[in-house]
């Protein structure tokens, strides 16, 4: 059977040209790990520097609107 005009056929090597080394996988894993570490550090720093309120709601300004 002949291929219709204008149709492109690639052999196995040409079709797999973008999937060679696994470097991209490692770059993705390392960048995700670094993003998680950075976000965790930001979250923990904010939690440590936040004022302690012993689980109570801030009612000092509640009901004073108006």
Sheet of most strands: none
Helix and strand run: HH
Overall strand count? 0
Low-confidence spans: none
3D structure, described in words:
The protein is mostly helical and 66 residues long. It has two helices and no strands. It has helices at residues 12-15, 23-49. The longest helix has 27 residues, at 23-49. The radius of gyration is 29 Å and the shape is elongated. The protein starts with 11 loop residues before the first helix and ends in a 17-residue tail after the last helix. The mean pLDDT is 78.
Structural topology:
Layout: H1 12-15, H2 23-49
What would the keywords be for this entry?
0% strand; mainly alpha; 2 helices
Short description, anyone?
This protein has 66 residues and is an all-alpha fold. It has helices spanning 12-15, 23-49. The protein starts with 11 loop residues before the first helix and ends in a 17-residue tail after the last helix.
